[in-house]
Automatic annotation (TrEMBL), chain A:
This is Electron transfer flavoprotein subunit beta. The keyword Transport applies. One of its GO terms (cellular component) is cytosol. It comes from Oceanihabitans sediminis. Coiled coil: none annotated. Belongs to the ETF beta-subunit/FixA family. Keywords: Electron transport, Transport. One of its GO terms (molecular function) is electron transfer activity. InterPro entries: ETF_a/b_N (IPR014730), ETF_b (IPR012255), ETF_beta_N (IPR033948), Rossmann-like_a/b/a_fold (IPR014729). It comes from the Bacteria. The lineage of its organism: Bacteria, Pseudomonadati, Bacteroidota, Flavobacteriia, Flavobacteriales. Residues 23-212 form the Electron transfer flavoprotein alpha/beta-subunit N-terminal domain.
TrEMBL record, chain B:
Residues 3-190 form the Electron transfer flavoprotein alpha/beta-subunit N-terminal domain. It comes from Oceanihabitans sediminis. It comes from the Bacteria. Pfam families: ETF, ETF_alpha. GO terms for biological process: fatty acid beta-oxidation using acyl-CoA dehydrogenase. This is Electron transfer flavoprotein subunit alpha/FixB family protein. GO terms for molecular function: electron transfer activity; flavin adenine dinucleotide binding. Signal peptide: none annotated. Its cofactor is FAD. Binds 1 FAD per dimer.
Length: 248, 319
């Protein structure tokens, strides 16, 4: 089985979010970038398939040279080959177009992407890839079992979960549940050394038009100070929630 | 030309989010000087949609669509949009709508903006405000394709009533082959889901152990709220994973979020910041949650929560 894991290169969860150039660009100053958490769960599940069922695992990112350390980390975790499509990730559709080309060229059976990236929060790339490559698609995937070309997957739905059956080729939008936090791997010295020798291919982009454009960013208005209510005055809290906030 | 909106139902009954996206579609239609057409799939009664600005409902009745299927549903919406000549298509942010939307975007060659929180600030260029960086910022985005697809964030626009009533029409689209088959569904039907809830009662490690969740559930019941928890609580197995909210868990965009014994770590706040009003109950006045909350009680949850339940019961009895 040939697996491709799509890796989004995102600011670490604790990063301060600031903008520059008249609020049009994300300020990367002092920001540490990591593998998107949802992609890390997916990559770890891919390693499980590789070790338990036999599979090759490639990772891919659409982005500039600055994303290579993130791809190297994925190699250190155990991926075989990394691919970087050398173009700026302008919008979800343009990224999905590039990824669809990589998938068609590579003949992948299973494409693992994340439910959502924590920077753009589009939640659109996996579904678009599935649409563009005509593969089966399971979103919000929290469990994935593969037997030959038969797939049993569980997806999270509002208020519960649902088990579905389908077949390869398949694209998933994955998240925690594919593996648990405790299964995540911190690259060890040997992995890091080996990652340096593994191939990181840089491929040039195909023509793809962005369908949307970011005009500018805004930060939420600064919040007023919290109103404290004494624990022995909870009538006041009920009153505030009813009359002031109008939420009960 | 009419604005197309997908109004979801569950077991034949329209969901509340259906009324919200209908209200949103009406606002867009007013800006464009056109009408609103809703698509309802296997819904029993869609007359209510007229009250929220829908002019026409396309009713699809097909047993093959009883179980949700993203590809088939996207295909139905594509055919409806083409039939109506719609240039703008609106969906909600439910798990199902988020699942089908990117497929629909590819099918219609429609630029897609998700997590949209306001009516367009301009229709030419078509510009919407969406959340980004897990609610730490907003992004103004233009959609530059001929057809546009917008997913509206839950509870962001609210319900807006308008005058009028909707006409209904049967619509029989062709259904593609179903390649992802639902085998089983595991869903508590008697509980409000976090995604649908207007009020969410959430508790953290401050509750000490799973045996203390009775009061959390009782508070939620009094308020008609969903229950949620912080990540360590689900990692420890005190509560099911489906209740874990935050950056790596479920997003919450409720009208009221009550956090009990939750410190307010940045990753927790990232997932719940879209909630309108936040209340924190915590023994530690230095807990970071107090900086993010609108109302706070510095106190012991084991005393405050039971007392609050009594006060709310008295309040509800008066209503
Ligand atoms: C990559 C990453 C992703 C993460 N994603 C998430 C996420 O999605 N969601 C999430 O929640 N966390 C997430 N976390 C974890 C997060 O950093 C915090 O560790 C977590 O939110 C803390 O949970 P807590 O507030 O329940 O527990 P604690 O931090 O232990 O806080 C317990 C609180 O309870 C209070 N308390 C104690 N006793 C009482 C009492 N009797 N009455 C009232 N209050 C009391 C304490 O003062 C304290 O503030 C993530 C972390 C990382 C690194
Ligand atoms: N630039 C990118 N390169 C590779 N994969 C990406 C990129 N952007 C998004 N993805 C994948 O698509 C998922 C969802 O991203 P998004 O649609 O931006 O929320 C991510 O978790 C990744 O798996």
């Amino acid at each position: 089985m040939k697996i491709l894991v799509c890796i989004s290169h995102v600011p670490d969860t604790t990063s301060k979010i600031n903008f520059t150039e008249g609020d049009t660009k994300f300020d990367t100053n002092g920001v540490q970038f990591v593998i998107n958490p949802n992609d890390e769960f997916g990559l770890t599940r891919a390693m499980w398939f590789k070790e338990k069922q036999g599979a090759s695992v490639d990772v891919v990112n659409v982005g500039g040279p600055e994303t290579e350390p993130t791809l190297r980390k994925a190699l250190a975790i155990g991926a075989d080959t990394a691919i970087r499509v050398n173009t700026e990730a302008t919008d979800g559709f343009a990224v999905a177009k590039q990824l669809a080309k990589v998938i068609e060229d590579g003949g992948y059976d299973l494409v693992i992407a994340g439910r959502e990236s924590i920077d753009y929060n589009g939640g659109m790339v996996p579904g678009m890839i599935a649409g563009l490559t005509n593969a089966n698609f399971v979103n919000n995937c929290i469990n994935l079992e593969i037997d030959g070309t038969n797939v049993t997957a569980t997806r999270e739905i509002d208020g519960g979960k649902e088990t579905v059956s389908t077949t390869l080729p398949l694209v998933i939008g994955g998240q925690k549940g594919l593996v648990e936090e405790s299964d995540l791997r911190i690259p060890n010295m040997r992995g890091i050394m080996m990652a340096r020798k593994k191939p990181l291919q840089v491929v040039e982009p195909v023509a793809a038009n962005a369908e949307t454009a970011s005009v500018k960013f805004e930060k939420p208005a600064p919040k007023g100070a919290v109103k404290l209510v004494a624990p022995d005055n909870l009538d006041e809290l009920v009153n505030l929630l009813h009359n002031e906030a109008k939420v009960i | 030309m009419s604005v197309l909106v997908y109004t979801e139902s569950e077991q034949g009954k329209l969901k509340k989010t259906a009324l919200e996206v209908a209200s949103y579609a009406k606002a867009v239609a007013n800006q464009l000087g056109t009408t609103v057409t809703a698509v309802a799939i296997n819904a029993n009664d869609t007359s209510e949609l007229g009250k929220y600005g829908v002019d026409k409902v396309l009713n699809v009745t097909n047993a093959g669509l009883d179980a949700f299927n993203a590809k088939a549903y996207a295909d139905v919406l594509k055919q409806a949009a083409e039939k109506e000549g719609s240039k703008v298509v609106i969906v909600s942010s439910s798990a199902d709508s988020k699942y089908l939307a990117p497929l629909l975007s590819v099918g219609l060659e429609a630029g897609f903006a998700s997590n949209v929180v306001e009516a367009p600030s301009s229709t030419s260029p078509f510009t919407v405000k969406r959340t980004a960086f897990t609610n730490k910022a907003f992004n103004m985005t233009t959609i530059n394709t001929d057809v546009k697809l917008v997913a509206v964030s839950n509870n962001s626009f609210g319900l807006v009533e308008s005058e009028g009533s909707a006409t209904a029409e049967d619509f029989s689209p062709s259904i593609p082959e179903i390649n992802v088959k639902v085998e089983s569904v595991d869903k508590a039907t008697d509980k409000v889901s976090i995604a649908d809830a207007e009020i969410v009662v959430s508790a953290g490690r401050g509750m000490k152990g799973p045996e203390n969740w009775g009061m959390i559930e009782e508070l939620a019941e009094v308020l008609g709220a969903a229950t949620a928890c912080s990540k360590p609580v689900s990692d420890l197995g005190w509560r099911p994973h489906s209740e874990h909210v935050g950056q790596t868990g479920k997003p919450v965009a409720s009208n009221l979020y009550i956090a009990i014994g939750i410190s307010g770590a940045i990753q927790h706040l990232a997932g719940i910041n879209a909630s309108k009003v936040k209340v924190v109950i915590n023994t530690d006045p230095e807990a970071p949650f107090f900086k993010a909350a609108d109302y706070g009680v510095v106190g012991d949850a084991f005393e405050v929560v039971p007392a609050l339940i009594e006060k709310l019961k008295a309040f509800k009895a008066q209503q």
